[in-house]
Design goal:
The complex is a heterodimer of chains A (335) and B (249).
Chain A (H helix, E strand, L loop, with lengths): L1 H33 L8 E6 L6 H8 L2 H4 L4 E7 L2 H9 L5 E5 H9 L5 E6 L1 E3 L1 E5 L15 E4 L5 H12 L8 E5 L1 H9 L5 E5 L2 H7 L4 E5 H4 L6 E6 H6 L1 H20 L1 H12 L3 H9 L1 E3 L5 H13 L8 H8 L12
Parallel strand pairs in A: 1-2, 1-3, 7-8, 7-9
Antiparallel strand pairs in A: 3-11, 4-11, 5-12, 6-9, 6-10
Helix pairs in contact in A: 2-11, 4-5, 5-14, 7-8, 8-13, 12-13, 14-15
Chain B lengths: L6 H16 L8 H13 L8 H32 L1 H14 L8 H8 L3 H25 L3 H9 L4 H37 L1 E2 L5 H10 L3 H29 L4
The chains are: A alpha/beta (335), B mainly alpha (249).
Chain lengths: 335, 249
């Protein structure tokens, strides 16, 4: 069977050649990495289109903060909704991204995306808005009313349930329904719903159109509750910790810039979101631009999601510790 | 022949399980996890407490409301357009201009007119299924052999009798084809319409989007399977109705 030996030998040579070339490729790819050259990589950044909460991204880009930090941040995708952005993470199409805490926690808990929260983008910035004609100054006004939330187990869903609980009301005391925030404003002005819980700028949009008024701000329901965050792909974070650190540094700079230059920030928010200044201005006063994640706040939200059956995690505290990674923040513990 | 029918679904299922098992498809849920998801939809519902049967009923109600209205308006309109060349010439430009507009493009207006919920979804479904039914009805009437109409006329039939006894039965096969196409488009429109939000919190399309938001892709695919099966059954129902109606052939 000379034939088969021939083939075998050929196979042997082929695999040896393949192995050798693999080693060469590996050497070419990996060796310069040891010299620190691999840090020169583009960071593919995701964010939500027109989202006021993620203003720091726009400011950092426009003011050249990323360039100052020596990091090449490019737009990896502008998304309409957090879950869309998170599925881009599970497809490996993004390295870092600005996204809501809710989709970040959901996709991480379901193991659909392997990510870490490396910084906060903002806290608060949501409210319960009621249509004209609904009397009352507190949550009791919602008794028997139709209230729209952006989705099951969202932060806004949690805010509504928390507000009801505080007022000693049951979730069934209101007729909860699901709408996407742009539709909420329309539905409220048409009187199809009595109230909604949404994030800015939809709150201020409804108010400026006189379609509704703020019944309770999220600040009163849950002070400093987590909202949008800056997340990083876990593999990317392990491979390029220095890049993550630089992006976070630029983000911190941008966040401080917003807080120190509110008037200019309002103009920039107007350009970023396309919303008129008289919507952007009150909207921005309802939210806190901050960069330090509140681990206890995220944990509280994770516990809620577990309670309503949205995610299955055995140990919410351990899961949150894993998820929130503050190593990259300047001045925060370096453990 | 019957046993051949199950081959393509079985092969697709096997291939799917194989690919999902090896991880080639990334985070795609496997058929087994989808089957478990289907059970979860029935047993605990998604979001928890909102059971599959209610999602399905809400969607079916929207489809049949929209499709029913389309049927009631489109068939008479199509019969008249096929019967009277003058009426056809009058209506045709309007139909041909409105027809290419995708039903979903009407969404913003539908919300203004009918609000959010069954009526606006029903309106979009109506728009989606209306035109295939009209066009196929016109086609059906025009395809009736002229000698049949002549024969009826020679036997003394009036315009009304010809329309009711010759043209309508003659057009029936084509009308039913229109109904089948219209029903398919109705489902497509329904899912997209529900994805923008529904007031009642029920609907298969709504459920799929909620599952997506919750990173429950197994449930989302389970919803797709339900739509596929129900669409298949409805099509079978129309087909068996066709056989019964067209026994005279």
């Amino acid at each position: 069977m000379a034939w088969s030996i021939e083939v075998k030998r050929n196979k042997g040579t082929a695999s040896a050649a393949a192995l050798a070339s693999l080693l060469v490729i590996a050497a070419v790819v990996l060796l310069p990495g040891c010299g620190g050259k691999k840090e020169e990589r583009v960071v593919r950044m995701g964010y939500l289109r027109n989202d006021l909460h993620q203003l720091a991204y726009y400011v950092a880009t426009e003011k050249g903060f990323f360039t100052d930090e020596g990091v090449d941040v490019r737009e990896g995708g502008a998304f309409n909704a957090g879950p869309e952005e998170m599925s881009a993470f599970s497809a490996g199409a993004l390295d870092m991204g600005y996204v809501g805490t809710a989709p970040a926690v959901t996709f991480a808990a379901q193991r659909m995306a392997d990510i870490k929260i490396v910084a906060q983008a903002n806290q608060e910035g949501s409210a319960i808005v009621v249509r004209p004609g609904i009397e009352g100054e507190d949550v009791a006004a919602l008794n028997g009313r139709t209230v729209a939330v952006p989705g099951f187990s969202t932060v806004q869903d949690f805010l509504l349930r928390t507000a009801l609980k505080k007022a000693r009301m049951k979730p069934t005391d209101v007729n909860e329904t699901t709408l996407k925030p742009p539709e909420m404003v329309q539905a409220l002005s048409a009187g199809q719903i009595d109230a909604f819980v949404a994030w800015e700028p939809y709150v201020s949009q409804a108010v400026s159109q006189k379609s509704g008024r703020v019944l309770v701000s999220s600040h009163r329901i849950w002070p400093h509750h987590p909202c949008c965050a800056l997340v990083a792909d876990s593999k990317f974070e392990k491979e390029y910790p220095d890049l993550v650190k630089r992006v976070v540094a630029a983000h911190v700079k941008a966040t401080k810039y917003i807080n120190d230059n509110m008037l200019e920030a309002i103009d920039m928010a107007h350009l970023f979101t396309g919303q008129p200044r008289d919507v952007v201005k009150p909207a921005m006063s309802n939210l806190e631009y901050t960069y330090v994640p509140d681990v206890a706040g995220v944990r509280r939200y994770v516990v809620f999601m577990k309670e309503v059956g949205a995610i299955k995690v055995k140990d919410p505290a351990g899961f949150t510790r894993e998820l929130v990674d503050t190593r990259f923040l300047p001045g925060v513990n370096k453990s | 022949m019957r046993k051949w029918k199950i081959i393509s679904p079985l092969v697709a299922l096997g291939l799917w399980q194989l690919l999902a098992g090896t991880g080639v498809l990334g985070k795609t849920p496997s058929p087994v996890s989808v089957a478990k998801g289907l059970y979860e939809l029935v047993a605990t519902g998604f979001p928890p407490g909102k059971y599959l049967e209610w999602h399905l009923l809400a969607s079916l109600a929207r489809v049949f409301a929209g499709f029913g209205c389309a049927l009631l308006l489109a068939v008479p309109l199509g019969l008249l357009m096929g019967f009277s060349p003058a009426f056809d010439a009058m209506m045709d430009p309007l139909v041909e201009v409105v027809r290419p507009v995708p039903p979903l493009a009407w969404l913003p207006l539908a919300v203004v007119w009918f609000g959010i919920g069954t009526f606006s979804a029903g309106f979009l479904i109506f728009l989606g299924s209306f035109f295939p039914i009209v066009l196929n009805t016109v086609l059906g009437v025009k395809s009736v052999e002229p000698y049949l109409v002549e024969a009826a006329r020679t036997l003394g039939a009036g315009r009304r009798t010809i329309l009711a006894r010759v043209l309508t039965p003659g057009a029936l096969p084509s009308i039913i084809t229109g109904l089948r196409i219209g029903m398919g488009i109705a489902w497509m429109t329904l899912i997209a319409a529900e994805m923008t939000g529904v007031k009642s919190g029920y609907g298969i399309g709504y459920m799929i989007l909620a599952a997506r938001d919750g990173a429950r892709y197994d449930l989302a695919v389970a919803g797709m399977v339900v739509i596929g099966l129900v669409g298949f059954l409805v099509d079978r129902l129309i087909k068996s109705g066709e056989k019964r109606l067209l026994r005279w052939r």
